[in-house]
């Protein structure tokens, strides 16, 4: 707040505080009038991020006699969150450009997400796919003994499967022969994830 001892007693509007917020005085008056605490993220002239909390100030005899303004330095948390978001956006962008169909499952083998190639290849849409157990998709087209063995028995032990061929008659696209690669991913929000990459083999192959 760029305060010095001689600022005591001066109106807040006369203080050249170093925060990127234009209506601080009005926010304080609103908190005093409504007795409702507020909180927001702001940035200072030092380019650090803070959480600004404004709370009603209640005296010992239960009178509202102003407001308490609290600044909490959240710069490290804010920047790490932004870095994680940027990394996630970058990863999602990369996933969408991969030639193979990709699908991510959680520990219950429910679809968390898939890329456009997956939806195009198997002629399904996100609404009927995400959140569903992979073995229950469509007409049970993924409910094959090979895939069940992969996901329930082999993968938990080996953590990676490379080049597993699977042939199946799919609901909308007919019989297909594919090569499946799968691996476990580092935990995200304390949740185990599985990444499956599916490459369709051509008729010549």
3D architecture notes:
By secondary structure, the chain is α+β, with helices and mostly antiparallel strands. The chain contains four helices and eight strands, in the order H-E-E-E-H-E-E-H-H-E-E-E. It has a five-stranded antiparallel β-sheet. A hairpin with a 5-residue loop joins strand 1 and strand 2. The chain is elongated.
What string gives the helices and strands in order? HEEEHEEHHEEE
Mean pLDDT: 82
Please state roughly what percent of the residues sit in beta strands, choosing from under 5%, 5-15%, 15-25%, 25-35%, 35-45% or over 45%.
Answer: 35-45%
Strands across the major sheet, in which order?
A: 5-4-8-7-6
Structural class comes to: alpha+beta
Helical residue percent?
25-40%
Radius of gyration: 28 Å
How far apart, in Å, are the first and last alpha carbons? 70 Å
Please tell me what the overall shape is: elongated
Total beta strands: 8
Short description:
This protein has 205 residues and is of the alpha+beta class.
Q: Layout of helices and strands, plus pairs?
A:
Layout: H1 24-34, E1 38-43, E2 49-58, E3 64-73, H2 75-97, E4 101-106, E5 111-114, H3 116-122, H4 145-158, E6 160-170, E7 174-188, E8 191-200
């Amino acid at each position: 707040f760029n305060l010095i001892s001689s600022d005591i007693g001066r109106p807040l509007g006369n203080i050249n505080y170093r925060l990127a917020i234009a209506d601080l005085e009005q926010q304080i008056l609103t908190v005093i009038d409504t007795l409702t605490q507020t909180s927001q993220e702001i940035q200072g002239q030092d380019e650090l991020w803070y959480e600004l909390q404004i709370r009603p100030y209640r005296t010992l005899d239960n009178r509202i006699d102003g407001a308490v303004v609290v600044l909490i330095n959240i710069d490290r948390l804010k920047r790490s969150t932004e870095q994680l978001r940027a990394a996630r956006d970058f990863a999602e962008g990369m996933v969408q450009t991969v030639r193979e169909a990709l699908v991510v499952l959680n520990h219950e083998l429910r679809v968390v997400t898939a890329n456009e190639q997956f939806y195009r290849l198997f002629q399904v849409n996100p609404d009927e796919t995400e959140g569903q157990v992979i073995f229950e998709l469509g007409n049970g087209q993924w409910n094959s003994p090979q895939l069940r063995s992969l996901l329930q028995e082999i993968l938990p032990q080996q953590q990676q499967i490379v080049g597993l061929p699977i042939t199946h008659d799919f609901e909308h696209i007919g019989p297909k022969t594919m090569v499946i690669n799968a691996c476990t991913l580092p935990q995200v929000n304390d949740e185990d994830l599985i990444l499956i990459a599916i490459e369709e083999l051509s008729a010549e192959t």
